[in-house]
Amino acid sequence: MKLIVILAIILCYGRVNADDIEWIVYKDSPCLLADMNIKANFSYNASDSSVKNILYEIPKNLTKVDSSMSYCNESESLLAVNWSNGNRFEVSFSKNNKSYELSKFHISLNASDVLKDSFDNGTIEIMYERLINDSSFDTPANFSFHCTREQILNSTKNDGFSIILSQVQFEAFRSNNKDKKFSLAKDCESNFKPDIVPIAVGLSLIALIIIVLIAYIVGRRRQQARGYLNIM
Ligand SMILES: *[C@@H]1O[C@H](CO)[C@@H](O)[C@H](O)[C@H]1NC(C)=O
Ligand SMILES: *[C@@H]1O[C@H](CO)[C@@H](O)[C@H](O)[C@H]1NC(C)=O
Ligand SMILES: *[C@@H]1O[C@H](CO)[C@@H](O)[C@H](O)[C@H]1NC(C)=O
Ligand SMILES: *[C@@H]1O[C@H](CO)[C@@H](O)[C@H](O)[C@H]1NC(C)=O
Ligand SMILES: *[C@@H]1O[C@H](CO)[C@@H](O)[C@H](O)[C@H]1NC(C)=O
Ligand SMILES: *[C@@H]1O[C@H](CO)[C@@H](O)[C@H](O)[C@H]1NC(C)=O
């Protein structure tokens, strides 16, 4: 059990230095960092009058943060990102006392830009709002959130649309932190509590001391044994 905790902590530390973060919002210093793969799963009316289902992947390398619309406030933050002709997504984060969460995810696509055979040329909207009891994205303050596996956000509009996220890492509500690096991560696979960090660091230090001590004692015994042999 302790070993698992220690390993988890080491793994978390290993992820802290993520380079090339895709989207950054500034307020004096970088106050919101995010990187993830995003797919939109939706249906549309095609020009041959059939209904088609498509999995559209947002082209990360074409995206740009809309810094005039993005913001970091005390209890609410928004990342707005545009790409190509009239496509956009917005992610909201809300903060309460000691934690924050991803609260909304809105994708708006220009049908004639993204689809080749759409009958309508309007916008396709996918809207997700966090359900009251959903804690999938809850993150302790001053930590980042990390999740490798796919997470599906169902549209709240009951249209069967969804947003599929993977390789997610984000950190909102940073204050006076000039580093463009994610802080220690809460991983979606661990039932992680921040109080456990100092305990685990302490435990791993104790474990290290014990290992060094054992190595020292074993080494000395060997040396002594060899010493007697030499005398004989
Ligand atoms: C973006 O990535 C896609 C495939 O991942 C590639 O085809 C395209 O050329 C890239 N565009 C730019 C501007 O780098
Ligand atoms: C939607 O895409 C089409 C084709 O790329 C473009 O002509 C049009 O201006 C775009 N609409 C908006 C609102 O950007
Ligand atoms: C987060 O970090 C800031 C600045 O270091 C600190 O003032 C604040 O108390 C921390 N919040 C929590 C919940 O630990
Ligand atoms: C949408 O745009 C395409 C090509 O630009 C056009 O052929 C089609 O008639 C338009 N559909 C509607 C409903 O305006
Ligand atoms: C999302 O929708 C799918 C299919 O409609 C359903 O199986 C799944 O349980 C839904 N997930 C949540 C978290 O509501
Ligand atoms: C996309 O949505 C459709 C309809 O809700 C569903 O049948 C399909 O499994 C979804 N695809 C993925 C990759 O989740």
What does it look like?
With 232 residues, the chain is of the alpha+beta class. The chain is built from 3 helices and 14 strands. It has helices spanning 2-14, 111-114, 196-231, and strands at 23-27, 29-45, 51-57, 64-65, 71-72, 76-83, 87-95, 99-110, 123-129, 139-140, 144-147, 151-154, 162-171, 185-187. A hairpin with a 7-residue loop joins strand 12 (151-154) and strand 13. Helix 1 (2-14) crosses helix 3. One 2-acetamido-2-deoxy-beta-D-glucopyranose (NAG) is lined by residues 41, 53, 55, 160, 164.
Please sum up the structure shown.
With 232 residues, the protein is α+β, with helices and mostly antiparallel strands.
